[in-house]
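User: Predict HTH araC/xylS-type domain-containing protein's structure from this.
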Amino acid sequence: MFIQYNNLDINFTIGSTRFRTLNIAYEHLHRIIPSHSHGDNSYEIHYVVSGRGYIKVGEQTYEITPNTLYLAGPHVAHAQISVQGDPMVDYCIYLRLRRTSPGEKRTDDLDRLFTEKTFWIGQDNCQIKNTLEQLFRELKEQKTGYTVYVETLLRQLIVQMIRNYQGGQKARHHFKPATPAEAQDFIIEESFLYDYPVLTLEQLADRLGLGCRQTERLMQDIYGKTFLQKKGDARMSAASILLTYSDRSISSIAEELGYSSVEHFSAAFRKYYKKSARQYRKENRDHP
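Assistant:
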């Protein structure tokens, strides 16, 4: 069997390096692959699913067994030979690399970690087989968004390749924490999701790093509502759920939602839903 994709414009970027995928192939290697090498900035990733054989790199010979992974970079002469009667089944990804911004400071070491390794061979420990199988499914089925998915899988393949020859080394770069300004929407949503019974405007303003007036303006900009309106929405939504799906008393519900009295809760509920909490429960229990 031989499956090949070599006429597709598949590009993705890692750090300041552009990866162009010129050949994606799957082959039962009944034939001998004679010694050959790749030019500048060209790399080939091989993964052997099954079968046995050898790879000859210069004067060195390596045995290949199922789950063998190897990388051959620029000017690394290598030949591949299957054992007669048990041919290798091989995935091959051929890449050509180009720096996108030669003068730009690198923000990620991944591209360097890949390009500086011109040859490596070993057993895969990162489930590359699953990635390659999914890659070929996407290329075959071409479902909605497959081009994005293929690029994502190829980026993942590069990371898996690096992790294999790094042997579990910890990352040098990490996500930066979001500032309060960058996370404002999430802070507001999380506050009303978890703390709506007792949340105050002052508490929310403190979490956002803003003053109370600024917080009120922000609420209007995002939701078109005041803080009290947003808090009331959350409380009333919870009240409707508790009335419909629990047997708790109305006074117990009022207490859980942070109302000072059942009368205060009942008045707020009637104003919001135009009916009493008792009537709301009866109607929704009868017609779930």
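The radius of gyration is 30 Å.
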